[in-house]
Specification:
Two copies of one chain form a homodimer.
Chain A: H1 2-10, H2 16-26, H3 37-50, E1 60-67, H4 83-93, H5 97-105, E2 107-115, E3 125-127, H6 145-164, E4 169-175, H7 180-191, H8 195-198, H9 207-224, H10 231-238, H11 241-255, E5 260-262, H12 265-277, E6 285-287, H13 296-303, H14 319-337, H15 341-344, H16 351-354
Parallel strand pairs in A: 1-2, 1-4, 2-3, 4-5, 5-6
Helix pairs in contact in A: 1-11, 2-3, 3-14, 5-14, 6-10, 6-11, 7-9, 7-10, 7-12, 10-12, 11-12, 12-13
Chain lengths: 358, 358
């Protein structure tokens, strides 16, 4: 708990002075004030995170955490568990969706085994395995509290290492067959929302399997009685190792004043855990897209985050976050590279027409 | 009319065979089928446009058309007309929003004077001036039918030149103080929608000026009686030169089987004109973002286009289109660069769990 507690204690408020300076500069750039919308807001948030009036995003790293789930024995996924290590191998060969999109936006991909069931001996995969997959949460906790903390620590360590190596933006990504099930369970426990809202089709199960998935989550919550006021308890009882790892990445980023782009549903569940153990970490989060998974909107509302991309994606791996990381970089560039009205000799607004604004 | 008619006649259907091949390849890539959502759909549309099973987007060009509007005499804009040529100069110096975002996504910016009121003698600005600003549409047509056709021709010529020079994706952008007023007028005429839906605050006018803007549009439509069945008549009577230019760019792109990303409200009005004179051109359009301007959603609905970016932008210049052009490029890369299940040795779906899908 020591590393985790130190990290949480290190998460500070955003730098109000830098944010004010960024907002003032935005208002002098050659465009109607506010007309770049979310790009302007992001630049101000980045200023507050980095503590600089003109923040920069130079090195983007997407951290893909992989783990397996004992609950797949209940038939909750459309894909077999062997796909987890196969996709981990695919990530290292550059053939997966996250590889293509990260190359496109100039981001690096870091692949971490925090809990794959099979032995993973693949060059390029960072070894942080806490245990080989979780236990089946319908018959007891997915993992112990110590293992949950270890998964959070693993994520913090990975974030720290990437930041030490120069990363100034992190993105979260996940791989783990069956991982929408624990994500839905976390969302259900932390919000009290109905399973009809929190549970979806994941990689593409049919209607009968969807009902089975809801029943599995209902039983897991009944059996384990997770404490909604204790994010670590929720993570241990109905969560997953890659979800803990990603929550750790978020906390590690926040503690080191680095923005972290949250991908889709599984990353969102990790963000809920991070926000549960450290509410201030929300200030360092940036939403990316809205997933097809129905509970994702609720996650974003809970976190107070506004997504930028509406592209009906539901792949995970960090794919939505990778695309959004490029928008965050664009926001920083707008603030630092655009000319001011004075620089460019462009006339400003007619005050008489706008002072009447309601 | 000859160039315009030839261009319209050249717009063909999408290539169904290439689209089928692209869809089949998408379904073999290492991801759940359909899980990349709009990126998959875009790749299939690109295949249909380019007539290639694996389309490519290598050279992206944003065409910014600039023009002025006689209707600014009615006090419809928050900015003075002198800003149009000042911003044109800013574009050539690289200091505007569109420059920053285009550099970020690796797109080029082409700036065209199709109707700036002032004399524009700035190196790097393409001269296609049809007339120095439109007439005030509250007292008669904004321009003659011949001038409207000339503005369309100018856009077609610019698109043809860029495509001849290697562009395989075009984006539309606009600059013209006052140009939300003709755009709202076009939208009102072509859809019959109420002014409360079609008219917004543009660059930021107050509530009294907004009422004045609606009254101006109401009068312009009453005085000119544009024929909703004739897009050229609408463009001439209540449109604008840069709007005609952008409609021409869209038609030129479609005729040459090149995708064209439509920016925000003004570009959307141009797309309505293009679709009015050539409905098949809609197949070549790609929506980018949803503008804050309230009528923009209606435009997208009319065109049957689905935006990807929700960023509360309202700058124009092609800024939303530039960001979206990178997403289109990403879509092409997903299709050509991702590994298939067979390539990567990844197991496919458990059929028994998905065949029951409803």
């Amino acid at each position: 708990m020591e590393k985790l507690n130190q990290t949480i204690a290190s998460v500070g408020p955003l730098d109000a002075e830098a944010m004010q300076a960024a907002r003032e500069r935005q208002d002098q750039l050659t465009k109607p004030q506010g007309s770049l919308g979310v790009l302007e807001d992001l630049s101000v948030q980045l200023a507050g995170i980095q503590g600089k009036a003109q923040p920069q995003v130079d090195k983007k790293v997407i951290i893909v955490m992989a783990g397996d789930h004992g609950v797949v024995a209940e038939g909750v996924s459309a894909f077999p568990q062997e796909v987890t290590p196969q996709m981990v191998a695919n990530f290292t060969h550059g053939g997966a969706g996250i590889n293509v999109l990260s190359r496109h936006v100039g981001a690096e991909v870091r692949v971490v085994d925090v809990g794959v069931a099979a032995k993973v001996d693949i060059p390029g995969v960072l070894q942080k395995k806490v245990r080989p997959g979780t236990a089946n949460m319908v018959s007891g906790p997915a993992m112990s509290r110590e293992e949950a903390v270890a998964s959070l620590d693993a994520g913090i360590e990975v974030a720290e290492a990437e930041i030490a190596a120069g990363a100034d933006l992190l993105g979260t990504g996940d791989m783990g067959i069956g991982n929408t099930t624990p994500s839905s369970a976390i969302l259900t426990v932390l919000t009290g929302a109905d399973l009809s809202i929190t549970v979806g089709r994941g990689t593409g199960i049919g209607a009968p399997a969807l009902e089975q998935k809801k029943e599995v989550i209902r039983r897991a919550i009944t059996v384990n009685e997770p404490d909604a006021a204790d994010g670590i308890d929720v993570l241990a009882k109905v969560g997953g190792l890659e979800i803990g790892g990603l929550a750790g990445v978020i906390l590690g980023a926040a503690a080191n004043r680095v923005p972290v782009v949250i991908d889709g549903f599984i990353s969102g569940a990790a963000a809920l855990i991070a926000a549960s153990v450290c509410p201030q970490s929300k200030n360092y989060m940036i939403a990316s897209h809205v997933s097809v998974e129905p509970g994702h909107k609720l996650i974003l509302e809970e976190l107070g985050l506004k997504p930028m991309l509406f592209m009906d994606m539901r792949l995970g791996e960090g794919t939505g976050g990778a695309l959004a990381s490029s928008l965050v970089e664009a926001a920083a560039k707008v603030l630092s590279e655009m000319a001011t009205f004075a620089d460019a000799g462009v006339a400003e607004k007619n005050e008489k027409k706008t002072q009447q604004s309601n």
